[in-house]
Amino acid sequence: MGEEINRLHVIVDEFHADFHPSPQVLKIYKSDLLAHVEHGMGKNLAFRCSNAINASVQSSQEYMMESMVPLLPSTAQSQIHMLVPNRTFDLSYDLNCAAICSDFQENIEFQFSLGWKALVHRYLGSVNAQKALRLVDPNFQNSRSVVPVAQTPSSGPPSIAAPPSNETALMTQEDLMIAMATNLASLTSRTSMSVIVVGGVMWKTIGWRIIALSVSLYGLLYLYERLTWTTKAKERALKRQFVEFASEKLQLIVSFTSASCSHQVQQEMATTFARLCQQVDQTEKDLEANICTLTANIDQLETVQSCSKTLRHKATELELQLEEFTKQYLEPQQ
Predict the structure, then answer these.
(1) Contact predicate 70/110, CB 8 Å
(2) Other CB atoms within 10 A of residue 228 CB
(3) In this structure, are 176 and 198 located in the same domain?
(4) Which of 3, 86, 133, 232 has the most CB within a 10 Å radius?
(5) Total tally of structural domains belonging to the chain
(6) Which domain holds residue 33?
(7) What is the pLDDT of residues 13-69, one digit of tens each?
(8) In a domain, 84, yes or no
(9) Are 134 and 141 in contact (CB under 8 A)?
């Protein structure tokens, strides 16, 4: 399962559906994506694991039956294979992606790769970047949290937030500029003087042409990324974010899924053992019934034997009396 989680991007890339950044389409898209991932991973796990597990289960069942055959009479030995049908044991890999990925929230807004926020995140890391951005804008975290993001199907209907007006957007930009100016003004005069001196030296050393060329290249790069941020690019970004999010979530249920599969195998073996035990119990009852019948026959035979001995003694006595009678009355006297 760990290897399949590492290959999750392949399953996600194989998913194709109508995509649009609107919340209604995103809701259906992510629901279908979750179903596709669960089906794909379950199919791959079954292909890689089910055959080996099924062979092991059948081998154990054969061993159990062979061990029990000597305990059964010849009439029941031929019927033992009917107790455990030769069927394929299929494991159920219940990943439940819809539940574990219910809190997935995508961010498909355009972000310039050389923007100041992206550069801060790239060179300072996520944790340090958050601290640095809060120094510039104390309301940075709050400003991000109010952006409406489409929720997953299992998390309920998306919250409806009123789109910000132009006046609010301008106020936010003005607040950001004021915060930047306030933080820059809070620096020491020595640092400000150093920045001015370094800027002047660069102006004199590089020249305004190179600076203008750099600014032009920067603008062209921004324009290029902005124009290439199409619907397909947004879909690729959503898939990439989903792979990163789902991989972390699926790693948490590896042991749980393994325990579930182990429990299914245990149930299958327990069912086989119960059927064999039932056959042994039935055979034991039949043997006990036969023993009772034979015991009754033996008792009857012993009674007949005892009676036959008594009759034989009487017959011997009568035979002796007959011989004496013959000698005394029937044989001629000499």
Answers:
(1) no
(2) 10
(3) no
(4) 133
(5) 4
(6) 2-103+252-282
(7) 989 888 888 888 888 988 899 999 989 988 888 888 888 888 888 888 888 888 888
(8) yes
(9) yes
